[in-house]
Specification:
Tumour Suppressor Smad4, Phosphorylase Kinase, domain 1, six-stranded antiparallel β-barrel, alpha+beta, 12 helices
Length: about 450
C-alpha cells in the first residue's frame, strides 16, 4: 500500500508519531517518503509487501540497536543509518526512519555524469574517493558487509568532497546474517554473479573498486568490445560479461575487451588518461589479479592511503584554473595543456611521501604519523611574511617547537605560531619526524 499525505505512523523504539509530508521516490524494495515528527523532517523507506518480512524487520532492529560504525571518527557519520522501525497498526508492511538528505548540496554520480550538477575537481575527487574507502573500511572493521555497494547508493558534495552512503538496510554481519539482497549485478563480484559465493567483505572490495573506477572514468571497467558486440543485453549476457568471462577494458596483457574505436567511448579513454599512474596501477591490479582471486583485491586502506597522497599533489593551472594532480616529473594541465611550474615540495623521511608547497598547503598530523584516520588535524600551514608578501614560510601550528636546520648547518628553533622560511634544503624536525624542502 502507498502512504498518503498526512498519514500518521509510529516509531517502534522512540514511540513517537511521524506524519507523511510527501513522496520522494521509489525503488525495487519500496518507496521513500519525507515525514516529520513536528520539529524535524526525516526520510522514511516504506517496504513493499514482498519485502516486509519478519527477517528484514529484525535486521533493521539490529542495525538500529548497534548503530553506525564508530571505530573511526567521521566514517560512521557518512552512513545514512536507520534510526528506528516505523509501523502502522494492523498492517504487515513496515519501514524505517533515517536522516533526510539535502539534495541541493549533495549529488548522485548519475546527475554529474549527465551534467545536471557540477563535476568535482580532481582534488575533490580524491577526497570523495578517500571518504568512500574510509567509511567502508570502518564498516568492515565493525564486522559488517554492505552487500550492495553501487553508485546508486552514494551521494557526494562536488564542492567539498563530503560523502553520504545511503540505503544501509541491507547491511549484515559478515558471513553470518542472511542476505535478502545480493547487490546490483553490474557491481557484483564474479563469484556472486556465477552463484559460487554470497556477499561478503571480499565481494564488497570488488564492488568498491568498480565504484571508484566509475567515479574516475565514468565507465564500467568491463564494458568494452565484448559488451559492445552483444545485441541483447539480458541476464545471460550480463552473466557472461560480469561473471563467466570478465576482462578489464584496460588489461595490459589481454586486449580482447579493450574499448571499441567509437566516439561513445572517448570520454572513458580521456578520463582514464587523467588518472595518475599509481591509481591506474591499482585499478589494473583490482581488475586483473583481484577479478579472479578475492584474496588479491585492493583493501580499503590501500585505496585511502593513495587518495590522500594524490590529494597532496594538487596544483592549480594559472591559465585556466583547473585543478591537476602532480605525481612525478613534469605535468601539463589536463584541461588546457599548459605546462605547469611545479612548486617546492616537502619530503617526509618516515615514508615515500611528497607534499607540494602551494599557497594554501597545510601539513596534517597524518603526514608525520602513519595513519589515514582523522586526516584533517592541521599541524602546519604555508604563510606569507606580513612585512614582505613575496616571502613565504611554514607556520608551526603545534604546541611544541620545531627544529630548523639550514643548508649551511645552522639550527634555529621554530616556536609555536612562528614560521620557518621556505628555503630549498631546509630541514625541519616536526615532533620527531624529519622533513626537507626540495625542488
Amino acid at each position: 500500500m502507498q502512504l498518503k499525505k498526512g498519514q500518521q505512523l509510529k516509531a517502534e523504539t522512540l514511540e513517537q508519531t511521524v506524519t507523511v509530508v510527501r513522496k520522494l521516490g521509489e525503488g525495487g524494495q519500496g518507496e521513500v517518503y519525507c515525514v516529520t515528527d513536528g520539529e524535524k523532517h526525516y526520510a522514511l523507506k516504506w517496504y513493499n509487501i514482498e519485502q516486509s518480512t519478519e527477517e528484514q524487520k529484525n535486521a533493521i532492529r539490529h542495525l538500529v540497536t548497534r548503530g553506525a560504525p564508530q571505530r573511526v571518527t567521521g566514517a560512521g557519520e557518512r552512513f545514512i543509518w536507520p534510526i528506528d522501525v516505523i509501523l502502522l497498526d494492523n498492517v504487515k508492511q513496515f519501514g524505517y526512519l533515517m536522516p533526510l538528505i539535502d539534495r541541493q548540496r549533495f549529488a548522485e554520480l548519475g546527475e554529474v555524469q549527465a551534467l545536471r550538477k557540477a563535476p568535482p575537481s580532481l582534488v575533490q575527487l580524491c577526497e570523495i574517493s578517500y571518504q568512500i574507502a574510509n567509511s567502508y573500511r570502518a564498516l568492515h572493521l565493525s564486522g559488517y558487509c554492505y552487500r550492495d555497494i553501487s553508485a546508486g547508493n552514494l551521494m557526494f558534495n562536488p564542492h567539498t568532497g563530503d560523502v553520504l552512503i545511503c540505503d544501509n538496510d541491507n547491511i549484515g554481519i559478515n558471513r553470518q546474517s542472511k542476505a535478502q539482497v545480493y547487490g546490483t549485478m553490474e557491481y557484483m563480484a564474479p563469484e556472486v554473479v556465477r552463484g559460487d559465493a554470497v556477499p561478503s567483505t571480499e565481494t564488497d572490495l570488488h564492488s568498491l573498486a568498480i565504484l571508484l573506477f566509475d567515479l574516475w572514468v565514468w565507465h564500467h571497467p568491463l564494458h568494452g568490445e565484448m559488451e559492445y558486440q552483444i545485441r541483447v543485453w539480458d541476464v545471460p549476457a550480463k552473466r557472461q560479461i560480469y561473471g563467466e568471462n570478465p576482462i578489464f577494458i584496460f588489461d595490459p596483457k589481454n586486449k580482447d575487451n579493450q574499448l571499441p574505436n567509437e566516439p561513445d567511448y572517448d570520454t572513458a579513454r580521456q578520463r582514464w588518461s587523467y588518472c595518475p599512474p599509481p591509481l591506474q596501477t591499482l585499478f589494473i591490479r583490482a581488475f586483473t589479479e583481484g577479478l579472479h582471486n578475492p584474496a588479491q583485491r585492493i583493501m580499503e586502506g590501500e585505496w585511502q592511503s593513495l587518495f590522500l597522497q594524490l590529494k597532496d599533489g594538487g596544483i592549480v593551472c594559472p591559465k585556466c584554473h583547473a585543478e591537476n594532480i602532480w605525481w612525478q616529473g613534469t605535468l601539463d594541465c589536463w584541461h588546457c595543456q599548459t605546462p605547469l611550474t611545479i612548486p617546492p615540495k616537502l619530503v617526509f623521511a618516515n615514508g615515500p611521501h611528497t607534499l607540494l608547497l602551494n599557497q594554501k598547503t597545510k601539513i596534517f598530523q597524518r603526514h608525520i604519523k602513519h595513519t589515514t584516520d582523522n586526516p584533517n588535524t592541521i599541524i602546519g600551514e604555508m604563510v606569507q611574511n606580513p612585512k614582505n608578501p613575496k616571502v613565504w614560510g611554514i607556520r608551526n601550528l603545534t604546541e611544541k617547537a620545531w627544529t630548523a636546520t639550514f643548508p649551511d648547518g645552522n639550527r634555529k628553533s621554530v616556536e609555536p605560531q612562528r614560521a620557518a622560511p621556505l628555503k630549498l634544503g631546509l630541514k625541519l624536525n616536526i615532533s620527531g619526524t624529519e622533513v626537507e624542502i626540495v625542488a
